[in-house]
Design a protein that fits this description.
Blueprint (H helix, E strand, L loop, with lengths): L3 H57 L15 E3 L3 E2 L1 H21 L4 E5 L5 E2 L1 H22 L9 E5 L4 H9 L18 E13 L10 H17 L7 H22 L3 E11 L8 E11 L3 H7 L5 H17 L6 H9 L17 H12 L12 E14 L5 E3 L2 E3 L17 E20 H8 L6
Helix pairs in contact: 2-3, 5-6, 6-10, 8-9
Length: 457
């Protein structure tokens, strides 16, 4: 016979084990339920945030909608061998559009910008590329403060071997590390010197203390003087005031003509470094850009209020088309006509308007007209607006006649004669606004011969 006490002890132990088991199962069930709830909650947050992103995406990318084709973005952006608006516009703009689409399609992703095959760039193409990156990432960072889902893309650069491309990447603010510049090809004597940064203004800044035009135009003049000083020259007080006013008017044009509030500006300077200082050459680049209406579109927009000026320009364009056999279209000829001094879409508002752009062209091409074709040091100013590319250089630049500057873009210096096709080009795809890109060269020996050592005194 078994002991009753042992049986009772066994029953109690069994009951305790069962209770422990029930508690453990209850905890496990509670944990599983809690875990399921947590997963559901996280999924809900992600889905909600994705809906929020989709709802705000068009707003974030709205300013660049013309450059974006949803669903076409790649994780590797291959920069073409020649990334220059000046000589390879179509392929450059296609690459810029691919980049904008990649930012749109790959929020929070890793994007590689591959410059490895690139052997030539210009400041205009790099500037448009950078502004798109900076503006979109800035807006995405603001969106990021409202959500947990990562929307900031990680951008990396694969650098080329070309020293000249690396120089411009560095001086245009692209993140280049010391390891990136090893084993570079010696295809340039220029070295990056300094960079003004990226300046942004807006037509919405109406108050004196908010408006950036006067501040930024003064900054640019000061920057130009610092570049000239490297070659033993500075602007005189009158020249300083004159160029300050010209830049301010060009920025006003960017505000008034585009239909979009924002404009962007940058400048950079590179320099040869030799022991013979007066032989050294410096390259100065200035780029001003706004998105929105082209010069042609802006002029047509005010034709009723600006009827007298519109009729004069229209008559000029009609006469050129009727009297010459050429391939120029209306947009090209209207753009050239509106470049002339005293021609402005806003002439009905202010009689002083219509001098900024042509004075800008004339002043800077006169200042930096040093040229060395053997080293490809050729100063020029390009304007990209709508489907027009207008080029000024030492060959074709504004000429003074009857105290008025005219820009004919032909050797006859005659507006009644057709411009050269090499200097008034038709673009296959539209530039979504207006970009002014200036490149000029500074050299002390040239200044000494030109000004007798008295420039700025």
């Amino acid at each position: 016979m078994s002991n009753p006490k042992n049986k009772l002890k066994l029953v109690k132990e069994t009951l305790r084990n069962h209770k422990s088991y029930l508690k453990a199962k209850a905890r496990e069930s509670k944990f599983q339920t809690s875990n399921i709830v947590a997963i559901q909650k996280q999924n809900f947050i992600v889905e909600t945030e994705l809906k929020l992103i989709n709802q705000t995406k068009n707003q974030v990318f709205g300013d660049f909608a013309e450059l974006i084709t949803p669903g076409t973005g790649e994780l590797i952006i291959k920069i073409p061998t020649v990334f220059c608006l000046e000589s390879n516009y179509s392929e450059c703009m296609q690459t810029i559009k691919e980049f904008a689409s990649s930012l749109y399609d790959n929020l929070g992703g890793h994007i590689l910008i591959d410059f490895s095959k690139c052997s030539k760039v210009d400041s205009g193409a790099l500037f448009v590329f950078q502004i798109i990156r900076l503006e979109i990432v800035k807006k995405l960072k603001f969106l990021q403060t409202k959500i947990k889902y990562n929307v900031i893309p990680e951008l990396n650069i694969k650098v080329p071997k070309s020293k000249d491309v690396i120089r411009l990447l560095i001086i245009m603010g692209y993140p280049i590390s010391p390891d990136d510049i090893k084993n570079q090809d010696e295809d340039s004597t220029l070295n990056p010197f300094h960079f003004l940064g990226f300046l942004k203004g807006s037509a919405s800044q109406k108050h004196y203390f908010e408006n950036k035009k006067s501040v930024y135009s003064a900054n640019v003049v000061s920057y130009i003087n610092s570049c000239l000083d490297e070659h033993g020259y500075v602007l005189s007080e009158d020249e300083t005031n004159n160029i300050d006013g010209i830049i301010a008017e060009v920025l006003s044009n960017a505000e008034d003509h585009s239909g979009q509030p924002d404009w962007y500006l940058t400048a950079n300077f590179s320099k040869e470094m030799s022991q013979i200082g007066e032989e050294d050459v410096g390259e100065l680049n200035i780029v001003i850009m706004n998105f929105g209406n082209s010069i042609y579109e802006a002029f047509l927009e005010t034709k009723e209020k600006n009827n007298e000026m519109y009729v004069a320009v229209k008559n000029y364009v009609t006469s050129m088309i009727n009297n010459h056999d050429f391939s120029f279209n209306e947009e090209q000829l209207y753009t050239l006509a509106t470049m002339q001094e005293q021609t402005s879409r806003l002439k009905f508002e202010r009689q002083s308007r219509g001098t900024g752009t042509i004075k800008f062209i004339n002043s800077f091409l006169e200042l930096g007209d040093f040229e060395d074709k053997a080293k490809n040091y050729v100063p020029n100013l390009s304007i990209y607006t709508g489907k027009v590319h207008l080029v000024c250089d030492n060959q074709f630049k504004p000429r003074l006649k009857d105290n008025i500057y005219y820009l004919s873009l032909n050797p006859e210096n005659d507006l009644a004669v057709p411009p050269r096709a090499s200097h008034l080009k038709k673009l296959k795809s539209k530039f979504p606004g207006t970009l002014l890109s200036l490149k000029l060269y500074l050299n002390k020996k040239h200044f000494d011969n030109k000004y007798g050592g008295n420039y700025g005194n």
